[in-house]
Specification:
about 180 residues; mainly alpha; about 55% helix; about 5% strand
Length: about 180
């Protein structure tokens, strides 16, 4: 099977079930941004490959599940209104994120100031992933009522988890957080 189809050469692409839309359609923007977020999570995980800390395996397993769920989010966003979504997010997916947030947030110091994104390359990539997830969330909201409330809740919670994960990774890998100080 060839990777190129030539069907998008004139600025259109297919949604799930074959509906053709412009490549700048809000659905395409939303699931494309979701794909971008997924890629950033993958980049962050790749920066952990040579690092070692006690919770690394658990964190990598969480990221694997998150990347899978981001494909499910993308599938929901790429499904035309009124058509059946094959991979739906469930409330338990959101609850799992909340468990991970609580687990890793308990391991980092309490916030006393805003922090500047950065630190270890894995932590910095997680901060970027967080901002891309926020953009995905904004794009999903712009689609309207056809977007599942579970998708919106998952994206909202995922950005919180990525923030906590970035802080946790930076702590475990000895990178001090830079706090925002008013000048």
């Amino acid at each position: 099977m060839k990777i190129y189809t030539k069907t998008g050469d004139k600025g259109t692409t297919s949604l799930v079930y074959g509906t053709r839309v412009a490549k700048n359609d809000v659905l395409v923007e939303a699931y494309g941004t979701c794909d971008e977020a997924n890629s950033m999570v993958g980049l962050a995980v790749s920066h952990l490959s040579n690092e070692f800390f006690k919770e690394k395996e658990a964190l990598e397993q969480a990221f694997h599940e998150i990347q899978t769920k981001l494909f499910h989010v993308g599938a929901e966003l790429a499904t035309p209104h009124g058509k059946e979504v094959k991979w739906k997010l469930e409330e338990q997916d959101i609850a799992k994120l909340e468990q991970w947030i609580d687990l890793f947030d308990d391991k980092v110091p309490a916030l006393t100031n805003f922090i500047l994104p950065g630190g270890h390359p894995a932590g910095a990539a997680l901060h970027v992933a967080r901002t891309v997830v926020r953009r995905t969330e904004r794009m999903a909201i712009s689609i309207g009522e056809q977007v599942s409330p579970n998708v919106l809740a998952y994206l909202n919670r995922l950005s919180d988890f990525l923030f906590v994960a970035a802080r946790f990774v930076n702590l475990k890998l000895g990178k001090k957080e830079n706090e925002l100080h008013s000048s």
